[in-house]
Amino acid sequence: MHATASNAATPLERSAGTGRAAKDARNDLIFGGVLKACALIVLLSLIGAAGSTLWLGQDAFRTFGWGFLTSAAWDPSNDQYGALVPIMGTVGTAFIALLFAVPISFGIALFLTEIAPQWLRGPVASAIELLAGIPSIIYGMWGLFIFAPFVATHIKPWLMNNFSADPPDGQVSWLVQHVPFIAKFFSSEYPFFGAGVLTAGLVLAVMIIPFISSVMREVFQTVPTRLKESAYALGSSTWEVVWDIVVPYTRTAVIGGVFLGLGRALGETMAVAFVLGNTFKFSLSFLETGSSIASTIANQFGEAQGLQRSALMAIAFLLFVVTFIVLLIARLMLRRLATKEGN
Amino acid sequence: MSASLYTKRRITNVVAMVLSVTATGIGLLFLAWILWETLSQGITALKPQLFTKITAYREEGGLANAMVGSLILNILGILIATPIGVAAGTWLAEYSRRSRLGPTIRFLNDILLSAPSIVLGLFVYTIVVLPSKYLSNGNITFSGIAGGVALALIALPVIVRTTDEMLRLVPGTLREAALSLGVPQWKLTTQILIRAARSGIVTGVLLALARISGETAPLLFTAFGNNFMTFNPLDKMPSLPQVIYEYTKDPSPDINTLAWAGAFVLTMFVLALSLIARLAFRSKVSHD
């Protein structure tokens, strides 16, 4: 019955129907294609960023070869470039940033998930997230005018008195006399000058705390309540529940969060450009000035020509590849959490 | 013996709790410290001339051209990034189910979200600024357009991600209902799904705007900066973060104070935007 009814439609109606369907199908195809093209822009911009820096940096790679990575020369007047000092500055500041940011972020996440009363959690979490909203140029200004002088008057002299071979107070400490190499990491030609690897690392630490702590907080919340309750029921203290239940349960994601922070710290530009000092002298000391890859590009790219521009592009390529790998690891580790959460 | 173990465990616990509270205190202390300094250092220069005069007059000047430039650059960035980002996010949420490309792009988008902005700036320098010499008698020209493209590249992943997430929150029954009425998928997407996720998408755009208004590094070699008022996006264009950068490095304390005032305005703008975005988002979530 039904079939005859539909067959009874006039040819005109039928052709209008299929015409409409065909038009819809065509529109759907076009629409889907346009959307897909837009999605591919994401892919293209990543490939493009890597490709363009490699392309324009090839002169530097070709001229200096592998020595580019190990040479500490950065001398625009003689057209000699080596990436060692910027690489060390980038790695050193990121290392210090993690050293301080990870335990503090852990403490904040712990406070927000286990300790704080319910009414306090929201406001404190929002306040910590505000730290992530402050533009990096503001961190740079604050670092340059406020924090670097603070380090110079309160932190650096103390560190030098205790750990360096030429302390401002003239008395070489017991530690320096008995522990080899330690003085190498804490020497400085200018005891009362605040800019340096340590200062930049500390500013970076403040900048990445909100990222790491929010990841940690989120993953701590995924731990099943019954798991924690059973531990409490057996008589565990809060700390034991966190350290023996929550942390092992969320380990991968916590490491992912730390890598996310590391990725941010490696690529951060403006704040570091202000408080690192922008010198190109090779030094192992955390109290000496230095330069990072990103700050070198920010400071020099505007006026750079020829081989210098190529060298800057080359270090940008290195930075991009390294942050890409770090972020890749971070996201892979965080993704496992998402699947765990789904179960 | 067991009493001493108990005491030890209690002490460990108390120490850990105290350290945790201290860590939170340190975080909040730095927030308060930075906000307080921006306010107290900048407040003396918060005069009408900050908003009316341009940077060319230095000590007697203001930041009017930088603010206008920032506004133009941000609008350009958002105008470029929003349609592309919403489209890409829609594709990820609605169209990529059967392809392997979808998860890959979603994953890469998350990486682009945290990629160093200075490298993205160099990329835009390569594809927009360098080719400009073929259009303008061999001169390489920095331009507002280039700055806008750089900012768009930074805003893009934020918009893609929120659009994707918001669309996936839309209940499947809505899709089924529409499709069973014979609505073609493009109509379903544009007229029902995007409309249902609209407030979430707007939140994403606001967050993206907050993110790009503070960006400095990629503008240094795309928009480049300029001491005069310009409305022409083909010209070099000043921006607030970039003028703050220049003025912070200046040896003159008066110029530094201007930079602080600019920093105060910028910080308040960015924080207000992200607060509005969060509040809008929260009210939406609680509605559902």
UniProtKB/TrEMBL annotation, chain A:
Transmembrane segments: 29-56, 83-112, 124-152, 190-212, 253-276, 311-334
Keyword terms of this UniProt record: Cell inner membrane, Cell membrane, Membrane, Phosphate transport, Transmembrane, Transmembrane helix, Transport
SUPFAM superfamilies: MetI-like (SSF161098)
Annotated compartments: Cell inner membrane; Cell membrane
MF annotations from Gene Ontology: phosphate transmembrane transporter activity
InterPro entries hit by this protein: MetI-like (IPR000515), MetI-like_sf (IPR035906), Phosphate_PstC (IPR011864), Phosphate_Transport_Permease (IPR051124)
PROSITE patterns: ABC_TM1 (PS50928)
Keyword Membrane: yes
GO CC annotation: plasma membrane
Residues in ABC transmembrane type-1 domain copies: 87-330
GO biological process, one term: phosphate ion transport
The keyword Cell wall biogenesis/degradation is assigned to this record: no
Biological role stated in the UniProt entry: Part of the binding-protein-dependent transport system for phosphate; probably responsible for the translocation of the substrate across the membrane.
Family recorded in the similarity comment: Belongs to the binding-protein-dependent transport system permease family. CysTW subfamily.
Annotated protein name in UniProt: Phosphate transport system permease protein
TrEMBL record, chain B:
Domain ABC transmembrane type-1 as annotated: residue spans: 67-277
Gene Ontology terms describing biological process: phosphate ion transmembrane transport
Bilayer topology: Multi-pass membrane protein
Organism from which the protein derives: Luteibacter yeojuensis
PROSITE patterns named among the record's database cross-references: ABC_TM1
Record-stated family: Belongs to the binding-protein-dependent transport system permease family. CysTW subfamily.
NCBIfam families noted in UniProt: 3a0107s02c
Keywords, comma-separated and alphabetical: Cell membrane, Membrane, Phosphate transport, Transmembrane, Transmembrane helix, Transport
Gene Ontology MF annotations: phosphate transmembrane transporter activity
Subcellular location: Cell inner membrane; Cell membrane
Keyword check for Transport: yes
Membrane-spanning segments: 12-36, 71-95, 107-128, 140-160, 192-212, 258-281
A matching Pfam family: BPD_transp_1
Name recorded for this polypeptide: Phosphate transport system permease protein PstA
InterPro entries: MetI-like, MetI-like_sf, Phosphate_PstA, Phosphate_transprt_permease
Keyword Membrane assigned: yes
